[in-house]
Structure formats: structure tokens, C-alpha cells
Write a structure and sequence with these properties.
- The chain has about 325 residues and is mainly α.
- It has a domain at about 1-125: Farnesyl Diphosphate Synthase.
- It has helices spanning about 5-25, 30-40, 45-60, 60-85, 100, 105-125, 130-155, 160-185, 190-215, 220, 225-230, 235-245, 245-260, 260-270, 275-295, 300-315, and strands at about 90, 95.
- A two-stranded antiparallel sheet has the order 1-2.
- The chain is globular and about 55 Å long.
Length: about 325
């Protein structure tokens, strides 16, 4: 990416953050305090970057991209607040979570506040089709969380269930925002479906990458090592380990997880090449992203987007 393009992206992200701050401004200072805290620790704004990079190339005007990015980021932030409550998480991006810092009651209320502000942001889009698409994304995110809790409670291990959960919990918002770009540009049904599939492939690669990062240190990832395992979430490397094991070995793996012997689990994953197998699945998804990207992006900009996809999706 050239210096000018980097500068344009940086300016865009600053405008998105300013828009989010404006949307979430409240007369209640306790709410503003949490908002200020969250917006100072919002991560890499991957969804906004995708909206800018693809939306600019497809020809959507910048003000619309800012509105769409703001709505998408607010949906994402509200799910993170509620996820941390469900998971009883203490740390996110190397800082205390909202539930850890302000307690469960204020965290629940604040997550609800963000959802209401999301719908306010959707109204500003002035496009019912886009609003409906993002509302469907929010519904799927909740559905995915329910499914993940069910799987966790039942100790079930199934690769199909895993992909269903990550499609609804992670990939659906990526596919939704890319489809919204196409809706704004009035692309035909075929192109809208291609943008949707691009987003699903990106989301799949993104989540597998996150699964792999669960086995890295917090200094590298910004989240506690083995955070997902400690919360009972069965990530792709673990599920692949189960699939390579007989019933007695699976019982042993469950026992190791329940007793917190995560280093032993990690060694078993290494010995069985399940990290390698998970990376292969991630590379397949990245290849799909690149293939779909080539259908929409001009030749002279493809290399920049290939680099972006690789850097974003490889841990």
C-alpha cells in the first residue's frame, strides 16, 4: 500500500472512530466513561478496513463507507461486551474487560446501550436493504452464541458444528458488510452473492487464525494464553485432535481440558500435526478470499489487497 493510500486509510479510521463517539454520546457520564474506555481500546478495526479497501475500489462514496463502518463496529463492540460477560473474561487486548472493571450489571446495561445505538446508526444509512442485512447479521451473531453454549454444555465435538458456529459468530458480519457495499452500489444478485462468499471466507480464515493464537502468549495476541480452552471453547486445533483420536483418547483429552492441563493438550496437538492441519484450512480460506477479490478489484490494486489479506489472516 502506498503512503497516500495508508494516509487515506488512517484518516478514514479516525473519522469512523469520531462517528462512533458521536453516535454513542450520552447524557449519562457513567456511560460516557465506559465508552471512552472502550473506544481507546478498539483493536485493529479490521471490519472498517475491509469496508474502506473494498468499498473504495467498488466505487462507494466515503460518507456512506463511514456510516456503514460505524454501524458494523458498534455491532461488533456490543457482541464483545456480552461475550466477555458470558465467558467471565477478565482481559481483552491486554486490558481489563468492561465486566471486570465495572461489574456485571453495568456491563449488561452497557452492551444493551451499544445495541440501541447501533440501530440509531442503521437509521442514518437511509437504506432499508442495508439496515435489514445488518440486523440479520446481529440475529445470527446471537444465534451463534446460543449454539456455542449448547456445544460447550454437551461436550460435543463435530467439525460441521464448529464451522456453523464460526459462520454465525464471526464470518456473518464480514459477509454482511461486504454484501452491504454491493447493495449500496446496486450490484446484481450474482455479484452480491460473490461478495457474501468473500466475507464468509475471510471470516473463516480470521476465526481459524484466532483459534491458533489461543496457544500463543498474551504478549503476542493481546489475550490470555489458553483463554478459549479455559472457557470450554473447542477451537479448530482441538477439534482436529479429537477427530484423530479414538473414544478412550477423547475421554482423556476432555479430562485434561477439565483439569486445566493445557500445555499437555498443546503438546498433543503438536505431536498429531493438528496445528499444521488447522493452518492448511486457514490457507484454503485465504485462497478463496483472494480468488473472490480478483473478481472485484483492479489488477494494479490486487497485490496490495493480497498483502492485506495475508498480514491480517496469518498469526
Amino acid at each position: 500500500m502506498s503512503n497516500i493510500e495508508e494516509q487515506n486509510l488512517t484518516e478514514f479510521l479516525l473519522e469512523v472512530k469520531a462517528k462512533m463517539a458521536n453516535i454513542t454520546l450520552s447524557e449519562n457520564e457513567a456511560i460516557n466513561e465506559i465508552t471512552s474506555y472502550i473506544l481507546s481500546n478498539t483493536g485493529k478495526f479490521i471490519r472498517s478496513k475491509i469496508i474502506f479497501l473494498y468499498g473504495s475500489e467498488i466505487g462507494v462514496k466515503k460518507p456512506k463507507l463511514i456510516e456503514l463502518a460505524s454501524a458494523a463496529e458498534l455491532i461488533h463492540l456490543s457482541t464483545l461486551v456480552h461475550d466477555d460477560i458470558i465467558d467471565e473474561a477478565d482481559i481483552r487486548r491486554n486490558k481489563p474487560t468492561v465486566v471486570n472493571k465495572w461489574g456485571i450489571k453495568k456491563a449488561i446495561l452497557y452492551g444493551d446501550f451499544l445495541y440501541t445505538k447501533t440501530f440509531q446508526a442503521l437509521n442514518s444509512l437511509e437504506n432499508i436493504a442495508i439496515s435489514n442485512e445488518l440486523i440479520k447479521c446481529a440475529e445470527n451473531l446471537i444465534d451463534g452464541e446460543f449454539n456455542q453454549i449448547e456445544i460447550r454444555n454437551n461436550n460435543t465435538v463435530c467439525i460441521e458444528q464448529y464451522y456453523d458456529v464460526i459462520e454465525k459468530k464471526t464470518a456473518v458480519l464480514f459477509s454482511g458488510i461486504l454484501k452491504c457495499i454491493g447493495i449500496e452500489k446496486k450490484l446484481d444478485t450474482h455479484d452480491l452473492e460473490l461478495l457474501k462468499q468473500l466475507g464468509l471466507s475471510f471470516g473463516r480464515a480470521f476465526q481459524i487464525n484466532d483459534d491458533l493464537s489461543d496457544f500463543n502468549t498474551s504478549e503476542i495476541t493481546g489475550k490470555a494464553e489458553f483463554k478459549d480452552l479455559s472457557e470450554g471453547k473447542l477451537t479448530l486445533p482441538v477439534i482436529l485432535l479429537f477427530e484423530d483420536s479414538n473414544s478412550n483418547q477423547q475421554d482423556q483429552i476432555f479430562s485434561l481440558i477439565q483439569s486445566g492441563e493445557y500445555e499437555t493438550i498443546k503438546k498433543k496437538i503438536i505431536d498429531s500435526d493438528c496445528f499444521k492441519k488447522a493452518r492448511i484450512e486457514r490457507e484454503k480460506a485465504i485462497s478463496n478470499c483472494i480468488e473472490y477479490t480478483e473478481r472485484f478489484i483492479k489488477l494494479d490494486k490486487l497485490d496490495n489487497l493480497r498483502v492485506f489479506l495475508k498480514e491480517t489472516l496469518v498469526a
